[in-house]
């Protein structure tokens, strides 16, 4: 029987198996360019753990949310990079068989995400990448000394189906695991304000009235309150438990000269540290669709950056995609894993990689 194994690391070759859905034990990794830690969430996970323990089947994170998986990364860049230099997406070591109709879907993807770039030659290493700042679902930043943990997000309130209300269709792509081919993103971009400031990294933190405007969810959160702010303490967690860190081979401890501060088990969209006003996800994505805006943005080395990527389509337990019609993509990959990577466009620098594979 095949089982899912998820590995995380700072390169394609230095990867460590992570225990999925273990929010309080992130896996830490350290590379010449990025020091970070990760939590991976898989709905209904029955796969492989790094210590032979029983898998954590699911997580309260998924309650009321139309998501199948989540990749959460927090960390610090070791030198400054601008927003046009850091990309995120899917890449492979060998060619893959493209499903019938993929070119049509790719045209849709480019319409939704005008800055997506691709290399799909049959004799190369295919990739589909977008600038991290304009494609990632959730993005935030904070100072490492801001050690207080936010409270866990409230369980989303039952509400009308947002996708139906906005006349969206999440079934617009047979390769929906890329997280890009959703008409909901196009709708959110079209409605976003285009008057965002081009200033970066304000000197003082500001309160972000975050609407969590991520339209691949089909449930709304309702109003947020101060319990979701960074001023909440670790005592907000059950039993006052504090996160501990699982370190990869060669990883540095948290007091090594580039501290990450306390792990934040949940990342909320918060642009306060890199824009001069709060933005929703849709507004941030809209703002960074221009190359000028991306080049003006800089990932600062003295801040911890938090990112989250998720999708409602891909079931990594089986490699099935469910979008009204279902299909299994495993046969198209020639035995390769699905790999999400944060890297430069040329691929000469990798910041982190997350690998999903089915093994016997």
**SSE order, as H and E?**
EEEEEEEHEEHEHHEHHEEEEEEE
Tell me the structural class: alpha+beta
| Rg computed from alpha carbons, rounded to a whole number of angstroms | 19 Å
What's the domain count? 1
**Strand fraction:** 25-35%
Helical run tally: 6
Low-confidence stretches: 150-177, 180-242, 248-255
Major sheet characteristics: 7 strands, antiparallel
Overall geometry: globular
Count the strands?
18
Distance between the termini: 6 Å
Question: Which sequence of strands runs across the widest sheet?
Answer: 2-1-18-17-7-9-8
Which terms would index this structure?
6-stranded mixed sheet, 360 residues, alpha+beta
Give a quick rundown of the structure.
This protein is of the alpha+beta class and 360 residues long. It is built from 6 helices and 18 strands. The chain has one domain.
Explain the layout of strands and helices.
Elements: E1 3-9, E2 15-17, E3 27-30, E4 34-42, E5 69-77, E6 81-82, E7 87-91, H1 102-112, E8 117-119, E9 127-131, H2 132-135, E10 138-142, H3 162-165, H4 183-191, E11 246-247, H5 281-287, H6 291-296, E12 298-299, E13 304-311, E14 314-315, E15 320-323, E16 325-328, E17 338-343, E18 350-359
Parallel strand pairs: 3-11
Antiparallel strand pairs: 1-2, 1-18, 3-4, 4-5, 5-13, 6-12, 7-9, 7-17, 8-9, 10-13, 14-15, 15-16, 17-18
Helix pairs in contact: 4-5
Describe this structure in words.
With 360 residues, the chain is an alpha+beta fold. It has one domain (3-359). It is 11% helix and 25% strand. It contains six helices and 18 strands. It has helices spanning 102-112, 132-135, 162-165, 183-191, 281-287, 291-296; strands at 3-9, 15-17, 27-30, 34-42, 69-77, 81-82, 87-91, 117-119, 127-131, 138-142, 246-247, 298-299, 304-311, 314-315, 320-323, 325-328, 338-343, 350-359. The strands form four sheets. A seven-stranded antiparallel sheet has the order 2-1-18-17-7-9-8. A hairpin with a 3-residue loop joins strand 3 (27-30) and strand 4 (34-42). The longest helix has 11 residues, at 102-112. The chain is globular.
């Amino acid at each position: 029987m095949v089982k899912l194994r998820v590995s995380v690391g700072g390169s394609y070759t230095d990867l460590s198996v992570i225990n999925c859905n273990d929010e309080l034990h992130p896996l830490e990794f350290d590379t010449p360019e990025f020091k970070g830690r990760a939590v991976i969430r898989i709905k209904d996970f029955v796969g492989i753990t790094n210590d032979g323990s029983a898998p954590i089947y699911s997580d309260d994170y998924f309650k009321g949310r139309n998501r199948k998986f989540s990749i959460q990364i927090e960390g610090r860049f070791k030198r400054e990079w601008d927003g046009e230099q850091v990309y995120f997406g899917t890449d492979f070591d060998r060619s893959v068989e493209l499903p019938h109709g993929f070119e049509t879907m790719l045209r849709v993807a480019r319409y939704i995400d005008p800055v997506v770039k691709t290399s799909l030659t049959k004799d190369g290493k295919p990739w589909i990448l977008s600038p991290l700042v304009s494609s990632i679902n959730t993005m935030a930043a904070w100072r490492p000394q801001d050690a207080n943990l936010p409270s866990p997000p409230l369980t989303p309130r039952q509400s009308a189906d947002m996708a139906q209300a906005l006349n969206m269709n999440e079934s617009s792509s047979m390769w929906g695991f890329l997280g890009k081919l959703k008409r909901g993103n196009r709708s959110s971009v079209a409605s976003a304000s285009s008057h965002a400031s081009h200033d970066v990294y304000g000197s003082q933190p500001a309160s972000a009235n975050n609407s969590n405007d991520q339209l691949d969810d089909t449930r709304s959160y309702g109003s947020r309150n101060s319990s979701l702010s960074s001023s909440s303490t670790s005592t907000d967690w059950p039993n006052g438990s504090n996160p501990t860190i699982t370190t990869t081979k060669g990883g540095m401890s948290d007091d090594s000269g580039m501290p990450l501060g306390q792990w934040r088990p949940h990342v909320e969209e918060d642009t306060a540290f890199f824009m001069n006003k709060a933005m929703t996800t849709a507004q941030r994505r809209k703002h960074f669709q221009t190359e000028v805006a991306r080049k003006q943005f800089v990932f600062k080395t003295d801040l911890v950056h938090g990112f989250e990527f998720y999708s409602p389509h891909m079931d990594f337990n089986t490699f099935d995609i469910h979008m009204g019609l279902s299909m299994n993509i495993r046969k198209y990959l020639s035995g390769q894993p699905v790999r999400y990577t944060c890297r430069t466009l040329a691929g000469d620098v990798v910041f982190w990689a997350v690998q999903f594979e089915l093994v016997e």
